[in-house]
Amino acid sequence: MNKNEFFSQLKIHLQKLPKDEQEAAIADYEEHFEHGLFKGRTEEEIAHSLGNPKKIARELVTEYHLEHAEQNSSYTSITRAVLTSLGLGFLNLVFVLAPFIAIVVVIISLYAVSLAFVLSPLSIIVTLFSGDSWQSVLLLGFITLILLGIGLVLGAWNTYFSKKFINWFARYLKSNQRIIRGERK
Amino acid sequence: MNVQFKKGVLTLCVLVLTLKKDRYGYELVHTISEKFLIAEGTIYPLLRRLTKEGYFTTYLVESTEGPPRKYYQLTEVGQKYADELIEEWKEFSAAVNLLIEEGILNEQK
C-alpha cells in the first residue's frame, strides 16, 4: 500500500466524523509520512508499519463518539457511542447493550405510566354518558385528578432520571473502553 | 505481545517519554517502535485522546531540518497522571514478577 492508497482508505472510513476532526487526524498521518520519507523510508514501509487504515479510523471514530457523548448528552450521540463500542468486541455485547436496553425500557415504561395517569381524567367523559350517579362521577373525578398529579410528578422525575442516566452511561462507556484497553480506573 | 495489554502500556510509554522533554509525533512513534513491535498508527489516536483530556498541549515548530514538527508537551495534570500510572505500573509489574518467580520455583521442586 502506498501513501495515496493509505489516505484514500483512511478518508473513506473517517467519513462519519466532522470535517475538522477528519482533517486534524489526517494531518497527523501526513506529518508522519513526511518525516518517514525524510528519514529515507519508502511509502510502502511507512504505510505497512502504521497498520491497517480501517482499524486506525475505527479507533479514531470510537474515541470521538465517546468524547462527544460525554460532552452533550443527547440520545443520538449516546446510541452511536454504544454502537461503536459494540464494534470493538462481541464480548462487550453483554456488558454494554444489556444494561442499556434494560434501563431504556424502564424509562419508556415509566413515561407510559405517567402519560396514562395524566390522561386518566378523560375517563370522566365516558362515565357522563353511562348513567352513573353523580356521586360516583364526582369520586372518579377526584381519583383521576390525584392520578393526574402523580403522573406529572412521575414524568418530571423520569426526565430528571433519564438525563442522569445518559451522563452516567457515557461515563460507564468510557470506563468500559478503559477496561478493554487494559487500563484501570 | 498481547494487543490489549500493549495498548494500555502505550499510554504509559507516551507519558514517560514526554516527562523530561517535549517530543513530536514521529519521534514518539519511532522511539517506541524501536523497543517493541506495534501498529504505529495507533499512537496518534492515543495522542489525540490524551490531548483532548488535557494531559497534553501541542505546538507546531518549523524545522530547518526536515518537515514541521507537532510537539506534545505534558500539562500539570498530565504530569500528575503520568506519576500515578508509573506508580501503578511499578506495583503491578512487581506483583507479576513475583508470581513468575514463584511459578518457576514451584516448577523446579
TrEMBL record, chain A:
Spell out the Pfam families in the cross-references. HAAS (PF22564)
Indicate whether Membrane appears among the record's keywords.
yes
Sorted keywords for this record are:
Membrane, Transmembrane, Transmembrane helix
Bilayer-crossing regions: 90-117, 137-161
Name-wise, this protein is DUF1700 domain-containing protein
UniProtKB/TrEMBL annotation, chain B:
Report the SUPFAM superfamilies cross-referenced here: Winged helix' DNA-binding domain
**Which sequence ranges are marked TM in the entry?**
none
| Pfam families in the cross-refs | PadR (PF03551)
Where does the record place the Transcription regulator PadR N-terminal domain?
Answer: 15-82
Q: Which domain of life is it from?
A: Bacteria
Protein name per Swiss-Prot or TrEMBL: PadR family transcriptional regulator
